[in-house]
Amino acid sequence: MTLTGKHALGASQETAYRLLLDPATLQACLPGCERLNQVAADRFEAVMKLGIAGLRGTFSGKVTIKDQVPPEAFTLALEARGPTGLVKAEGRIVLRAAGPTRCEVDWTGDVRVTGVMAAVGPRIIGGAATMMAGQFFDALERRLPPPGGPPGPPASA
After folding, report:
1. Phi, psi (deg, nearest 5) at residue 26
2. Are 79 and 88 within 8 A, CB to CB?
3. CA atoms of 155 and 94, how far apart (whole Å)
4. Engineering a disulfide at 120: which of 43, 53, 58, 97 sits with its beta carbon 3.0 to 4.6 angstroms away?
5. What pTM was computed for the model?
6. DSSP secondary structure string, 28-53?
7. How far apart are CA 102 and CA 94, in angstroms?
8. Maximal CA-CA distance, the chain
9. Dist. CA 70–CA 154, nearest whole Å
10. Of 54, 49, 142, which is closest to residue 87 (Cα–Cα)?
11. Residue 20, class by beta-carbon neighbours within 10 Å (0-12 exposed, 13-18 middle, 19+ buried)?
12. Which of the residues in the chain have pLDDT under 70?
């Protein structure tokens, strides 16, 4: 299943790119993320609690960053296994400057699930994934530095 979306961020393209690849920011912003450990420059191990349509569980897996074109784009690949199935996802993030302190983020992703989770259907999974993307960007907005502030992630949110 393919999902797409757009989001405007109140940060420069460079700041947004840096934040989107910062492990502490990702862990704080990803819904249900309990742990995100960097194991290589472009690889992470993750533990997330996910729930869709009454199916809940803790998923463990890996996240890989690839195809980086700083500060314009990158691809995130996720593979995680939990008690209700396997989730494989790959998403492309593209950032465009929209002024000195704003940028536009376009995202496109493909999600595949197996196991019991697949039984809930693409419409419910797609809706849950879109909702989680919205939660992610809302959390990211709260972590943006104030206009004129230093670039990069704030100390804590």
Report:
1. -60, -45
2. yes
3. 26
4. 53
5. 0.84
6. HHSTTEEEEEEEETTEEEEEEEEEET
7. 14
8. 48
9. 21
10. 49
11. buried
12. 121, 147-157
